[in-house]
Amino acid sequence: MKLLFTCVSLLVGICLSDGAASQLWLLTANNLTIKFEEENPEFWRTQAQETLQAALNRKLNTNVAKNIVLFLGDGMGITTMTAARILKGQLQNHTGEETVMTMDTFPHVGLAKVYAVDFQVPDSASTGTAYLCGVKTNFNVVGVSAAARNGLCETQKGNEVTSILHWAKEAGKSVGIVTTTRVQHATPAAAYAHSASRSWYSDADLPADAKRNGCTDIASQLINNTDIDVIIGGGRKYMSPNGTADPEYPTDPSANGLREDGRDLIKEWLKMKEGKAAQYVWNKADFDAIDPAKTDYLMALFEPGDMRYELDRDSKMDPSIVETTEKAIHILQKNPKGFFLLVEGGRIDQAHHNSLASKALHEAVALDYAVERALMLTNEEDTLTVVTADHSHPFTINGYTFRGNSILGKVPLWGTDFLPFTTLMYGNGPGHKIVNNKRPDIRKVDTKTKDYVQQAAVPMGKETHGGEDVAVLARGPMAHLFQGINEQSYIAHAMAYAACVGQNQRHCHVTMTTASPEHPPENTSGESVKIRSNLPANNAVEHCGRSDIDEIGGDTSYKMGKPATPIIDFSSILLRTKAEHFQIPIGRCRTVSYLMTIKLTEPQPHSDAKTALAGTLFARFKTRAHIENE
């Protein structure tokens, strides 16, 4: 006999047909969570108009990014962001869905494609290499190109790739890493290490052939590769000699040091920093006592391995991600050249792998509070802030729940097996269970507890990653570059362009290689030609920020035999020469004089067809003119 109707509650009638495609009608007349003002169409029209006006009033910020703060939510796919938004609101006694997280306010949004070179669904090492080094690579390798092979030490040599953290350091900026995992984990490792295996945390993890071939572990690379100013996270045991008791858990053998080479990397790091304002701490009391004004280098390792989940954190021993982010910024921002800071909410991912949705979402909410604190401590005019994820998870919000229903709760609907299910579910993971050939009956189970293992469709010891695109949100200088759907490797290049580091510097500086503007080429024909430039208005100095432009162009043309400034309006150039090359000043930016070289590959004869000549010069100018630092 067909099941016609199943009544779920007194407030709602739910009808299930037994056809091939089930249909559901929710009678929500008595749904008390509906807000009165939202019944008025003007509420939504007014909200939309305000949003529209804000978008219309938005101006592009084309300043150079003095600072970059990259927030990486490990495993923070769009479903996780949505669920975290609802949870954040519900923790504040709101219905939740309408909540605006800090990261929601970022004006520029795009998507990143996360696949690895060899895998459709990636891991955090391959993705970290993409968004930090600007190069996609293979699954499980970190800081090397796809020419390297997973676990094969000999293939990593010569295939190392550097990260934006390294580029920023080379440019004279301070750099830092803050994570809630061990500092040797995949995401932070991509900022400084080169390894054919992300799992080579200490030398004890290196296989014999890797040691013979000269490969080094990730922990040793942390102190020996790029000079990192601030290192905050967990991972003490990978830095200490085998058997060394942990200072916080001296009686726990699982917390002991792991290194087989006898090296104490923490002591080595301190020795390397002798004569500098450097400190190492492992507990919150010492961390709180650090004066950023008197500290240039900080290593803070709060746990033997990963840091505790936010819901399990001992606030007397371990600082929050908000506190670690704040301390890092205070130390790094002393550098007048700026800084690059990577902040990872790494335990979002680890909670998802264990199907602990509550812990995953609380980690994401904590990351959002860290974003908020960073925005308070920096200036949008000179600091680019980016929020993104490395990958997602097979994590869903499902089941026609009422507005305001706990995001960690149950759906007011039963399946065809007469059993309830949760709003949040996983496609696979340890939450799949069968009891007497049925799903477990969770009617009397509190699904809101921090350790509740969420239901899953496919049984697996650990839940996997997801392969769909992830969000990229940005605000600050050149944030408009983060739009559209791009390869994940694009992120590093866009950040570098904004900050004028790495290979993306030519647009930021200008110089000449031929004749001096004080000695313009001699005019032998006396004929004037107006030439269209390939530069849009103010292009050459646009990236300096309009407020920093001291002057643009001149108001006189070349007078042969006498130094003079040519007319420049950035859309046309008045020239009186038939020389093969010449230079013209085009303005100043932050006390730097800007000039442009125009070089012709062959002498251009003057003719009555001025437009033809202008077109020829334009073609040469477009391909041969260049702008560099004076």
Automatic annotation (TrEMBL):
Zn(2+) 2 binds at D74, D390, H391, H465. Residues 1-22 form the signal peptide. It is a lipid-anchor; GPI-anchor. PROSITE patterns: ALKALINE_PHOSPHATASE. It is an enzyme of class 3 (hydrolase). Mg(2+) binds at D74, H185, T187, E344. Keywords: Cell membrane, Glycoprotein, GPI-anchor, Hydrolase, Lipoprotein, Magnesium, Membrane, Metal-binding, Signal, Zinc. It catalyses: a phosphate monoester + H2O = an alcohol + phosphate. Its EC number is 3.1.3.1. It comes from the Eukaryota. CDD domains: ALP. GO terms for molecular function: alkaline phosphatase activity; metal ion binding. PANTHER family: ALKALINE PHOSPHATASE. This is Alkaline phosphatase. The lineage of its organism: Eukaryota, Metazoa, Chordata, Craniata, Vertebrata.
